[in-house]
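Q: What would this chain look like folded?
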Amino acid sequence: SCNPAMMQIAAKLGNVRFAQYQSLFGFGAKTGIDLPGEEMGITKSEDMIETDVATNSFGQGVNVNMVQMAAAFSSLINGGNYYQPHVVKRIEKPSGEVVKTFDATLVKQTVTSSTSQYLKRYLKSTVDAGLAMKAGVTGYSIGGKTGTAQKIPRSAGTYIVSFCGFAPVENPQVLVYVVIDEIQRDSQTNTGLAVEIAKKVLEGSLKELN
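A: My prediction, written as structure tokens:
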């Protein structure tokens, strides 16, 4: 979460490649999920100026919906595979007979398998010894990333905090993305509550999945 480092990385990429990566991860385009009213979000195109590249590198000036973020994040932790997101997995009759199933549809590759392994290791360290230690669940390996986004107007000092967590790290089965708009607890930049909520959902989900 080092903004200067992100700006340096984006500067080396340049505006064209930076915009290409945004597109690769599905930002600025509808995912096509089976829900009405999906928004595309807001991203800058390849003609963005240096200031845009710098601020967009750490997320300022970029808007994505939660489905876009969850789908992109999932590809980072599953070996680089970006799948078509769905709400419904299957339709069953009251008797339990399966009427229709919605199989996973691979859309594209976002990162290599080796890059995915590196990222999972880093994301695990965020929970093991970083800002998201409260997301740890006894008996499971958990990974994740906190997020802090300043709202417009900047002068208002209002923020959105979030946490995207997953488990188990070795073979992810569950991803939980929690977003809190203008948290009413301590500082508005405190991501702790988002982490705590995600932990409860992860804990319950993992027990349910046995």
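The first strand starts at residue 81 and ends at 83.
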